[in-house]
Amino acid sequence: MSAAPHAVTPSSDWRRPFRYLWRFPALLLHVVVGLPITMLMINGLCAKFSFRGERLDHWAVRMWSKIMLRCFGLRTRRYGTPLPGAVMFVANHVSWIDITLLHSQRWMGFVAKAEIERWPLIGWLASRGGTIYHHRGNNESLHGVMHQMVQRLESGLAVGVFPEGRTTDGRAIGVFHARIFQPAVLANVPAQPVAVKYGAKGNAQAIVAFAPREHFMGNFLRLLGEPGRVAEVHFLEPVAASEDGRRRMADTCRERIVAAMAAAPEA
């Protein structure tokens, strides 16, 4: 994947203050009005009803995520089709907004670092959306995460993971950790690789990614003032649970995502 072009710094982008003038009120309205409605719809009763073939609570999360992306000036384009039912979605990881982007296309319970639970707004929504938290470097936490993933997959739900284990600078795809694929092997469900691209031909990956020493709130506010751009989600050919083991699944998923990131966009 080619490196992103030199980014315009926030201080040199004279349009940034004007974007904040309408995006911040839109985001505030979405949080004050849309979030309570979404939270009310995430319950056992709504889970029993469907809307256009999708669970009502899952539909509510997806619609909230779509509007959230628009507040940040992101226009989504989807290529391919997400698998229904129990599946492990495997994506490259650029920034916190990857979760919102994927949720705008298909509900999935994510595996994420425990720190996200403490993030303003995003942490609360992630918890209500079924996120499984992992304390890095804690083997007991990892064992619990794996157990929860297997339970969800066996109950017919989808799980989303970022096998790189952390966000990157957006310029390259890191190594995929094979251990995270073990629940798919145990539950005998496929893994579907998903390539996430920001900007035309993925040229905004490094802009959306966390800058050096940039924390969540800094990235959140910076992205809120960024120019409008496209966000592509490519659902790729799934990888069956492999008898050859999780390493083979991890490598195959990574190869397909790398290929999709390098490919020219479809018409």
Helices and strands in order:
Elements: H1 16-41, E1 50-51, E2 54-55, H2 56-71, E3 74-79, E4 88-91, H3 97-103, E5 109-113, H4 122-128, E6 132-134, H5 139-154, E7 159-161, H6 182-187, E8 191-198, H7 205-208, H8 216-224, E9 229-235, H9 246-262
Parallel strand pairs: 3-9, 4-7, 4-8, 5-6, 5-7
Antiparallel strand pairs: 1-2, 8-9
Helix pairs in contact: 1-2, 2-3
Would you state the CATH class? Alpha Beta
What percent strand?
5-15%
- Runs with pLDDT <50, length 5+? 1-6
Structural class: alpha/beta
Radius of gyration: 18 Å
CATH architecture heading: 3-Layer(aba) Sandwich
Q: Tell the overall outline.
A: globular
What is the ordering of alpha helices and beta strands? HEEHEEHEHEHEHEHHEH
Main beta sheet: 7 strands, mixed
What is the percent of helical residues?
40-55%
Question: Can you list the strand order of the major beta sheet?
Answer: 3-9-8-4-7-5-6
Quickly count the domains.
1
In DSSP terms (H or I, runs of 4 or more residues), the helix count works out at 9
Average pLDDT number: 86
Kindly report the CATH topology. Glycerol-3-phosphate (1)-acyltransferase
End-to-end gap:
20 Å
Strand count: 9
State the oligomer.
single chain
